[in-house]
Amino acid sequence: xxxxxxxxxxxxxxxxxxxxxxxxxxxxxxxxxxxxxxxxxxxxxxxxxxxxxxxxxxxxxxxxxxxxxxxxxxxxxxxxxxxxxxxxxxxxxxxxxxxxxxxxxxxxxxxxxxxxxxxxxxxxxxxxxxxxxxxxxxxxxxxxxxxxxxxxxxxxxxxxxxxxxxxxxxxxxxxxxxxxxxxxxxxxxxxxxxxxxxxxxxxxxxxxxxxxxxxxxxxxxxxxxxxxxxxxxxxxxxxxxxxxxxxxxxxxxxxxxxxxxxxxxxxxxxxxxxxxxxxxxxxxxxxxxxxxxxxxxxxxxxxxxxxxxxxxxxxxxxxxxxxxxxxxxxxxxxxxxxxxxxxxxxxxxxxxxxxxxxxxxxxxxxxxx
Length: 369
Hints:
Helices cover 73% and strands 0% of the residues. By secondary structure, it is mainly alpha-helical.
């Protein structure tokens, strides 16, 4: 009847509204609250059929109303940290006496002072050695199968080994800095950019993966550090794959910086630690610094290993080069002819996928004799 319908409607609204307002409901307590609602509905003065309909309606209306607010949680955490008084260990202070029972506070102080730093055991060292050997084996197999010209060139292998040792050493030094943002400055892109410019761009992609794994090991097994270093290195390899102008290096730094910043920003939601996302600007700084250091190291590698890099080719294409200037002064017709040949050859090289920069610079000098 209409009266029973109105009573059931009013009762369902009352039960559902009261529960959603008064009860703290989460995903874990949802089923228990629905059972409680069923008991309240059963106590309503209504026919059995109406109670069944009321319960189905109330059951559909009940949902979690207790949702975690990450922003407020982070604010509460920061507020709690500010209220904690810093523990000061003064020079000459006795931390614990002989025979005294060591509490957790004593252990924390000794650990912070570096007196209880965990030592590497044989198993840990063996595992690290195995991982490094596997990485080197994968690199060797790749070179043997797909880059045999590099595998048989001592100079290329020396450059690859030198860059790897240099990059891993910088990663170890920076990772040891006792600052939370130091890990975001790991220069894995430095290594991949040097390998891409000096040796081979495809090989630098594999090197980026290796640097990421080594970064994870050096940082104590941190997956976030490994992912950031790996993707930053891969971005560096892509950024310098083709350099035809000096501005390309600046563009490469921006690409690496933006890519690293994005990876750092998404690490917060993925790991649940939103402090990581707040350090996104360190990714931009990482990309800029890695590019600057790459530019600084290039002349040393070029002179020590006698490598002609795209940067060296750009220097050779400068009209102020003494040989080109002499060509212009002694044989201006030949000079202009060489410039025109360089433009034509560069266009042809771009069409067939050859190294257009190398072709253009070679054309500039082809009639010097």
